[in-house]
Specification:
Elements: E1 6-7, E2 10-21, H1 60-72, E3 76-77, E4 80-81, E5 83-87, E6 97-101, E7 107-108, E8 111-118, E9 121-136, E10 140-143, E11 154-157, E12 164-170, H2 177-193, E13 206-215, E14 225-230, H3 233-252, E15 260-265, E16 270-276, E17 286-287, E18 294-295, H4 298-307, H5 312-323, H6 327-333, H7 337-350, H8 353-370, H9 382-393, H10 399-412, H11 416-422, H12 431-444, H13 446-453, H14 461-470, H15 477-488
Parallel strand pairs: 14-15
Antiparallel strand pairs: 1-2, 2-12, 2-13, 3-7, 4-18, 5-6, 5-17, 7-9, 8-9, 9-12, 10-11, 13-14, 15-16
The protein binds adenosine-5'-diphosphate and magnesium ion.
């Protein structure tokens, strides 16, 4: 364990609550569609509107997704969990309560681990999860802006009411904003990889609340404030950094932190208290009499397990074993299924897994990031990259030349061998021709030869340069070295 990073002498403590919208077709307790973007109230049935006489019916698909999540993070799947009513008034909640899980959640424990850059080191971090529970989303309040000429009225859209959510709660294990963002990205990767959530942050399918507190090292946990609804990784980091500075300033000025719920304003970069935080007891939770306990037999868990695709961490372990890759590479290459598939195809075709990994984590990723492109749309296919790597390892071209070929393929397309030919990038592998160049250069630089023989190894540089130049950069540097040593030795 490395010592925790301090900010102005304070240790930062962060715990996350994430609402992942489950990718079912219909709502958690009704048959209405959950498709995004429909006209207000066109996807709200009698149950979603809380009309009398309606009763909730559990959506098996939502339960199955919760089981998949539990399996993906090595958690305990409760054999019996209980739905509870969380009571509060808000116009977008016509029932007057939200159905959630309280004392006995469906997913218990588990962990998420990832790599984090710390200074020059890459370290593995593990965040323990407390629980993940099923619940329904509320509707949305829509406000006409009177300042903009609207009527200044408010309306309620119940399309979102009853959308299935999995709320994923961590222990307060994170110690910096960087670590918090790395956790959120890893969690996002897991839920999208196993396909239980589409991960669309703009549409609100993956919303994070960050609980933040600070303390002097060794002191008990400080009072937290909860930053609500962070829907981009960039804002997440900005919001936490601002919040940490704000809390430290308050404490340094002699003020105590009040537990509160705060909102981040991306325009000002500041967090602002929305309401003082209520405690669980304020919600008067009690078991929902309309829903029986959720019972999940071991056979159900086993069946779900057998139908799940290979998990990212399992795939990463396989990459280490089968392709002799470092753990770091294996983790990077399993960021998404598409990246992993691109790597496996490249590695299988060219037979050079480490080179394939270097190229994908280097050149390919750099260009994808620069153009915000997904690897599925990369203009250089895995087969083309494999062909290029093949030409490096059979000494047809140098690494430098390979980069030129890659550039050309990326921006204009074309095939590896044709491009090498057209650009005249073939390395000179004909020793006779190279020997003649070397002899000429040696004859033209007698002083360097003399110095080298007198023990000045640096004099060699004065010879290699002109040789590479005379070969128009096509000489194989290793071969030049070898021949030079032979001739001078
Ligand atoms: P609630 O549901 O009322 O927000 P919980 O006790 O379930 O409260 O905690 C919610 C989140 O807050 C969890 O992720 C937990 O790790 C985190 N948390 C709890 N105490 C602290 C603290 N002192 N500092 C930072 N995070 C905390
Ligand atoms: Mg909370």
């Amino acid at each position: 364990m490395t010592a925790p990073k301090l900010v102005q002498g304070y240790e930062v403590v962060i715990g996350f609550e994430t609402h992942a919208q489950l990718s079912t077709q219909s709502k958690i307790f009704s048959r209405s569609s959950v498709a995004f973007g429909a006209e207000p109230n066109t996807q709200a049935c009698a149950l979603d509107m809380a009309l009398p006489g309606t009763l909730p019916v559990m959506n098996i698909g939502a339960v199955e997704r919760a089981i998949e999540f539990g399996l993906a993070i090595n958690a305990h799947i409760a054999e019996r969990s209980v739905f509870a009513r969380k009571n509060y008034f808000y116009p977008d909640l016509p029932k007057g309560y939200q159905i959630s899980q309280f004392e006995i959640p469906v997913v218990q424990g588990g962990e998420v681990s990832f790599f984090l850059e710390e200074g020059k080191q890459t370290v593995r971090k593990t965040v323990r999860l407390e629980r993940a529970h099923l619940e329904e989303d509320a509707g949305k309040s829509l406000h006409e802006d009177s300042a903009l000429g609207g009527g200044g009225q408010s309306g309620i859209d119940l399309n979102r009411a009853g959308t299935p959510l999995l709320e994923i709660v961590t222990q307060p294990d994170m110690r910096s904003s960087e670590e918090a963002v790395a956790y959120a990205k890893e969690l996002h990767k897991i839920v999208t990889w196993i396909g239980i959530c589409d991960g669309n942050m703009q549409e609100g399918s993956f919303r994070c609340d960050a609980n933040v507190s600070v303390r002097k090292p060794g002191a008990p946990l400080g009072t937290r404030r909860e930053i609500k609804n962070l829907n981009s990784f960039k804002f997440m980091q900005q919001a936490i950094d601002y919040e940490v500075r704000w809390q430290i300033d308050q404490i340094e000025d002699g003020h105590a932190i009040q537990q509160a719920t705060v909102l981040f304003n991306p325009d000002t970069g500041e967090t602002r208290a929305m309401r003082t935080k209520e405690d669980a007891a304020d919600y008067r939770y009690f078991p929902d009499p309309d829903l029986p306990p959720l019972v999940i037999g071991r056979d159900w868990v086993e069946r779900v397990k057998s139908e799940m695709a290979e998990l990212p961490r399992v795939m990463a372990e396989r990459f280490v074993k089968d392709y002799a890759l470092p753990e770091y590479d294996a983790t990077q290459l399993t960021q998404s299924k598409a990246v992993a598939a691109y790597f496996e195809t490249t590695a299988r075709v060219c037979g050079q897994a480490k080179l394939a990994s270097n190229w994908i984590m280097g050149e390919v990723t750099r260009r994808l990031n620069a153009s915000e492109m997904a690897i599925e749309h990369a203009p250089v296919s895995a087969a083309q990259l494999a062909a290029l790597i093949g030409r490096i390892s059979d000494s047809t071209i140098s690494n430098n030349a390979a980069r030129q070929v890659f550039d050309a393929m990326w921006s204009e397309g074309g095939e590896v061998d044709a491009l090498i030919e057209a650009k005249g990038l073939k390395q000179m592998n004909d020793t006779g021709e190279l020997e003649k160049i070397i002899d000429d250069v040696l004859a033209a630089h007698p002083k360097n030869v003399e110095e080298f023989k007198a023990g000045n190894t640096k004099a060699l540089n004065g010879l290699v340069g002109p040789i590479m130049k005379a070969s128009k950069g096509k000489a194989n540097p290793a071969q030049v070295n070898e021949l030079l040593m032979k001739k001078l030795g």
